[in-house]
Design a protein that fits this description.
By secondary structure, the protein is of the alpha+beta class. Helix content is about 25%, strand content about 25%. The chain is built from four helices and nine strands, in the order E-E-E-H-E-E-H-E-E-H-E-E-H.
């Protein structure tokens, strides 16, 4: 039901509903450049895919996809193949997006069941120098992660 209000001149006019409150935009992702030694591999990789990445990176001579990692321990959330490629290329530094698992923009599921994956299991496994089998976890980020265009030569020399 509309409400009727009087204008300053005494004319009737329909009162407009107050605009709905808009959700605050998600904070922007921050991109950092970290030494390769900061990163902790979290899953095994497929060497064929790693070599494909190396070839693609050499073709463009740029790093385009920062690796999302835990900001406290450098655990790779997504990008184990990129990390292996960086090591094969002899890069000293890698672009990353430092996050944590409490960040509402991050979710992680078990690859085969799509059930939520236990974050404590990730920390226990990786911090004890273990790694998960290939395609154990599936991370998603909302909004999507940003891209970069960083020359590989800068990442090789610092």
């Amino acid at each position: 039901m509309s409400k009727i209000a009087l204008s300053s001149k005494g004319h009737e006019r329909e009162q407009q509903p107050a605009p709905a409150a808009q959700a605050a935009p998600a904070p922007a992702y921050q991109i950092a450049i970290k030494p390769v030694s900061f990163f902790r591999q979290s899953e095994e990789t497929d060497l064929t895919n790693v070599h494909k990445l190396v070839t693609a990176m050499l073709d463009t001579a740029t790093w385009t996809t920062p690796i999302p990692v835990t900001k406290d321990h450098g655990i790779v959330m997504d990008g184990n193949h990129r990390l292996r490629a960086a090591k094969l290329l002899g890069l000293r530094y890698v672009p990353c997006i430092p996050l944590d698992y409490q960040d509402p923009r991050v979710s992680v599921l078990h690859w085969t069941t799509n059930e939520p994956f236990c974050i404590d299991t990730i920390y226990r496994t990786i911090m004890s120098n273990g790694v998960f089998q290939y395609k154990t976890t599936k991370h998603s980020f909302s909004p999507a992660l940003p891209t970069t265009d960083i020359p590989l030569r800068l990442l090789a020399t610092g």
